[in-house]
Design brief:
The complex is a heterodimer of chains A (107) and B (414).
Chain A lengths: L1 E6 L5 E6 L5 H7 L19 E4 L12 H7 L10 E3 L12 E4 L6
Parallel strand pairs in A: 1-5
Antiparallel strand pairs in A: 1-2, 3-4, 3-5
Chain B lengths: L2 E4 L3 H12 L6 E5 L30 H6 L2 E5 L3 E5 L4 E4 L4 E3 L2 E4 L3 E3 L12 E2 L4 H13 L2 E5 L3 H12 L3 E6 L11 H14 L1 E5 L3 E6 L5 E6 L4 E3 L2 E4 L3 E3 L2 H5 L8 E2 L11 E3 L4 E5 L4 E3 L4 H15 L11 E6 L2 E7 L6 E7 L4 E8 L2 E8 L2 H12 L6 H5 L5 H10 L5
The chains are: A alpha+beta (107), B alpha/beta (414).
Protein name (chain B): 3-phenylpropionate/trans-cinnamate dioxygenase ferredoxin reductase subunit
Pfam family, one (chain B): Pyr_redox_2
GO molecular function, one term (chain B): dioxygenase activity
């Protein structure tokens, strides 16, 4: 189990307990975190689970695959070097306590 | 009073969600026939079937959503009748709901085969979570799988069955796979791609009947040309039929779905229809269409909410679709038709390409295979009514992504 903290543009936060292997998108949708849509169900097809990962956790994330890279070029909110798709990040013990920022727009 | 939404799928929930975010404060009820929280359907024919993985449903909205937004979700409940003059909906639990606006988001059901043996044990459709969970179990034990229909569902299932090590035969009466959705070029690429996966795709060959074993379970499929394929598991994916009977019984106009205008209202302005069940005037095809997709369900759900809140704009969203078949990704933006002029870009040999469809010299649709950047570029271009000419697209080295970047940087009108 890892705790992931989703921070909204308004500053409010949701701390979600995520089972190992479960994606950030799935955990956020299941727990009703606002602003994480996951329209395609987690296949890097819709770019509606875009999140900004705080830099201190960057090294613990899985590498960006080509598909995710291409989809990230087309997110609704600005893509930055901290941008990832939540569906492509499974929770691991190394990510415990990670803070991710939810963008203002997804679709 | 307030809004009653019949159907707890992607479209119905989006109406409820968008009404609340648009400031609607009256009661909202969602009538959902299935038990449990409404869930996402795309993974049912994909991730849920992968070997080993547990098919855990992915909710469309978390439980807190319904309480926080004060949305009355009636699970395991069926709407039996609508009285439009009294503005009431009668439910199977004996209650009656009144409405100011009624929304049909009743979706579609699988078309069924009528041939001999179509109701044998071991012959399944794939539409609901229950179907997907059953097929997940069946696949673990199956050896010889026959799929009837080479549409999205059939081919997604075929790829999953190969991943389980099953022998897989797909019977498709038409001359190409996904014939209603994609160009010949894309169809041909998927034909060879599935052959390489080891799927036996039999084109121009439909199902004649199924044979039964002594216990009443399917044993073989016999095709329209008389070939016999052993089968201990069959999945039928031959399209869907709109759930429009309740609307028809309420004397709303139906014809391949519930007929609505560009604002998604039926002939009764207090009644709307959205998603798979709605037959609407489509600016992208120039005809009335019914679309079965997450995009259409979501965007029509949002639009219907705006209509209820008093806007009178037309629904003009660009349709887009996707399918994943094993490791193959297909993404489609726009609607192609058989008469379109097509230009392929990229490298089909390397399995990364797009097919651009032109109608009257204008870009009308783009099918992208393993090329998400092309797809997202296509959505931007088609959504803005932009696009290359056929000659520009056919030029050596043409890249949709670079073209879209340049188009975006040009001043308006460029």
């Amino acid at each position: 189990m890892s705790t992931i903290i989703f921070t909204q543009p308004s500053g409010t936060t949701d701390a979600i307990t995520v089972e190992e292997g479960t994606s950030l998108m799935r955990a956020a949708v299941t727990n009703g975190v606002e602003g994480i849509v996951g329209e395609c169900g987690g296949q890097a097809m819709c770019a509606t689970c875009h999140v900004y990962v705080r830099p201190e956790f960057a090294a613990a994330l899985p590498e960006i695959a080509d598909d995710e890279e291409e989809m990230l070029e087309c997110t609704t909110a600005e893509r930055t070097e901290r941008s990832r798709l939540g569906c492509q990040i499974p929770a691991t013990p190394e990510l415990d306590g990670m803070v991710v920022d939810v963008p203002s727009d997804q679709v | 009073m307030g809004v009653v939404i019949i159907g707890g799928g992607q479209a119905g929930l989006q109406v409820a969600d968008s009404l609340r975010s648009g400031g609607y404060e009256e009661p909202i009820a969602v009538i959902s026939e299935e038990h449990g929280l409404p869930y996402q359907r795309p993974p049912l024919s994909k991730d849920y079937l992968t070997p080993g993985a547990d098919p855990v449903p992915l909710p469309l909205r978390g439980e807190t959503f319904f309480t926080e937004k004060n949305i009355d979700l009636r699970q395991g409940t069926t709407a039996l009748a609508v009285d439009r003059s009294a503005r009431t909906v009668a439910l199977d639990d004996g209650t009656e709901l009144t409405y100011d606006h009624l929304v049909f988001a009743t979706g579609a059901r699988n078309r069924r085969l009528s041939c001999t043996g179509a109701d044998l044990d071991g012959v399944f459709g794939l539409k609901t979570l229950v179907d997907a969970q059953r097929l997940h179990r069946e696949l673990a034990a199956a050896q010889d799988v026959v799929v009837v229909g080479a549409g999205f569902i059939g081919l997604e299932f075929a790829a999953a069955a190969r991943a389980h090590g099953c022998g897989v035969t797909v019977l498709e009466f038409a001359a190409q796979p996904m014939g209603r959705a994609v160009s010949e070029e894309t169809g041909a690429w998927f034909t060879s791609a599935h052959a390489e996966l080891g799927v036996r795709l039999r084109l121009g060959e439909g199902i004649e009947h199924f044979e039964s074993d002594e216990r009443g379970r399917v044993r073989a499929a016999v095709s329209t040309i008389g070939s016999r394929y052993p089968a201990d598991l069959v999945v039928v994916g031959i399209g869907v039929v709109a759930n429009d009977a309740l609307a028809a019984a309420a004397e709303l106009k139906t014809e391949n779905g519930i007929v609505v205008d560009a604002s998604l209202r039926t002939s009764d302005p207090a009644v709307l229809a959205v998603g798979d069940c709605a037959n609407f005037p489509n600016v992208h095809s120039g005809t009335r269409t019914r679309l079965e997709s997450v995009q259409n369900a979501t965007d029509q759900g949002k639009h219907a909410a705006r209509t209820i809140l008093g806007e009178t704009t037309d629904y003009t969203h660009l349709p887009w679709f996707w399918s994943t078949q094993g490791s193959f990704r297909l993404q489609i933006a726009g609607l192609s038709s058989k008469d379109d002029w097509t230009v392929a870009t990229g490298d089909p040999g390397a399995g990364k390409f797009s097919v651009l469809s032109f109608r009257g010299g204008q870009l009308a649709a783009v099918e992208s295979v393993n090329s998400p950047a092309d797809h997202m570029s296509a959505r931007k271009l088609l959504g803005g009514g932009l696009g290359p000419t056929p000659d520009e697209a056919a030029a050596p080295g043409f890249s949709l992504k670079s073209y879209a970047r340049q188009a975006a940087s040009k001043p308006s009108g460029g």
